[in-house]
Amino acid sequence: MSFSELGLSPKVLSAIAAAGYTTPTPIQLQAIPSAVAGKDVLGIAQTGTGKTAGFVLPMLTRLEQGRARARMPRSLILCPTRELAAQVAENFDRYGINHKLNMALLIGGVSFDDQNRKLDRGADVLIATPGRLLDHFQRGKLLMTGVEILVIDEADRMLDMGFIPDIERICSLLPPNRQTLFFSATMPPEIQRLVDRFLKSPTRVEVAPQATTASTITQRFKWVDGTDWDKREALRELIRTSEVKNAIIFCNRKRDVDVLHKSLVKHGFDAGCLHGDLDQHTRTTTLDGFRGGNIKLLVASDVAARGLDIPDVSHIFNFDVPVHAEDYVHRIGRTGRAGRLGASMTLVTGDDMRILGEIGKIVNAPLEWIGDPPPADAGARRRRRGPPTGRGEARGRPQRGASRERQARPEHRQAAPALAEAVAAAPIMPAPQAEVPAPRQARPATEPRPPRNRDPRRARQDAPREERPASRARPERVQETGGEPHGRPQRQRRGAGREDGQEVVGLGDHMPDFLKRPIKQPGS
After folding, report:
1. pLDDT tens across the length of the chain (524 residues)
2. What is the largest CA-CA distance in the chain?
3. For residue 214, how many C-alpha atoms fall within 13 Å in the half-sphere facing its CB?
4. Residue 181: helix, strand or coil by DSSP?
5. How far apart are CA 366 and CA 203, in angstroms?
6. Helix, strand, coil distribution of the chain in percent, nearest 5
7. Which of 110, 133, 423, 468 has a CA between 20 and 30 Å from the CA of residue 407?
8. Any bridge partners for residue 204, and if so which?
9. How far is CA 514 from CA 416, 518, 519, in A?
């Protein structure tokens, strides 16, 4: 069956012929007729089977009639990553060459102003990541009540990246009478719950068992027992001994992507890197260079594992075994696309034995090993990080981070016996006696204890009354009409004039006579 029998419009068929395609893939053959008829579609297929064209071609056919209004797109395509969204936009440019449809791409890392201008002009096709789409909606720049067709691409990847709550919110903002096209490589329970909630009697299209690898890919594994330095050396040896035209090298962590990229460049390899912390311009430039053949090796995190259409990748190297077995399927699916031959090689350490068992169930075939397979106790071994510095070997014990080759050197094996002979031949010297301090002598009972450093005010209060120092005398108040003191006895200083009978001299005895004269009142 050809594309002309699937109900596509003449403009779309002309664009397909110009792109050089003549025969639809199995998922396109089953999904396109139902999508053109306006039915909901649930597509389950492994990566690289042509899912993107399976919803782009019927969308173009259905959108030929009508025109978009400002800020009200007619169709919406949700993608988990910027790279996948940009790739879908390229497919619309390729197959919609004969259409006058406006398209807007809403992804992070791009100016809001440019995207707002496209929305104000009216978008027939809106391709977006969930986060940036909700940003525009919350700013009041976007209305989604006119969406006729919704496409959710790589739904299981949406689940892995935590976008399911955003997907549920976006679906609640769309009109209920829309058409929904739902594509996923696997169907975990969370994805099945979304299907049951938002799809109405969908046409189920499944062209391959879930989470299976393509038969055109040769899969091999290599056991590495050592440090990260040993893993990088093993990877470089695999690249040198394989006929690599171009390759993608996957790491689990973004930090390892940067370290491995710098190591490959240092050893003379033509390599670039791609992960989520890079800005959009750098990510786009790197992908364009890899597609154009200017970059031979692309070190990437799982951001590049899903949906990227790089048609002619010869090799996939897994520097790290993925955390989830399903991600292994998507990683190696970047090669062997559209019936081409491909090869994948995975480095395995003691930390990866559990996941390796799950991968073996997906492959459903004996694993092929490069060199010796893992030993029986491989699951108990743990990978050591860091370069073999060799520190500590002078003491007769191998360094914790040293490689097994350095630990097995003859000079290190002979160090322990030589050291034992030297210790045995050395004369036995008596151990030095430690000096014992003299015991403290007891203070005689008659010797008074030294005074403590206490507050002077506290010391004055604790002293006997006869030994307390005399306080300063307070001056007596003098009446205004005379120099006589008040009718109360004058206060005496403490401890003064009590034993000798002398009176305390007051302030009035020292006043000059002119101050003691009475004050004349006016009129007297």
Report:
1. 789 999 999 999 999 999 888 899 889 999 999 999 999 999 987 766 788 999 999 999 999 988 888 889 999 999 998 888 988 999 999 999 999 899 999 998 888 999 999 999 999 999 999 999 999 999 999 999 999 999 999 898 888 888 999 999 999 999 999 999 999 887 888 899 999 999 999 999 987 665 667 788 999 999 998 888 999 999 999 999 999 999 999 999 989 999 999 999 999 999 999 988 888 888 889 988 998 899 999 999 887 656 566 778 999 999 999 988 878 888 888 888 767 889 999 999 988 888 898 888 888 888 899 998 888 877 666 655 555 444 333 333 444 444 444 444 444 444 555 555 554 555 555 555 555 555 565 555 555 565 555 555 555 555 555 555 555 555 555 444 444 444 455 554 544 444 444 555 555 566 677 676 777 666 65
2. 141
3. 23
4. strand
5. 35
6. 40, 15, 50
7. 423
8. 42
9. 110, 9, 10
- Judge whether 329 and 362 are in contact, CB under 8 Å: yes
Concatenated DSSP letters for 434-475?
PPPPPPPPPPPTTSPPPPP---HHHHHHHS-GGGSPPPPPPP
Record the pTM.
0.58
392: phi > 0 → left, psi -120 to 50 → alpha, else beta; which? left
* Nearest alpha-carbon partner for 385 in 231, 281, 167: 231
Q: What are phi and psi of 71, to 5 degrees?
A: 60, 15
- The residue whose two tokens read 């006058």 is 100
Amino acid identity of 294? N
Tokens coding 205 = 């299209």
Q: Domains of the chain, with CATH numbers?
A: 3-206 (3.40.50.300), 217-380 (3.40.50.300)
Side chain identity, residue 243? E
- Contact call for residues 290 and 246 (beta carbons, < 8 A): yes
CA distance 131 to 109: 12
Q: In sequence order, what E strands does 278-406 have? A: 297-300, 315-318, 342-348, 368-369
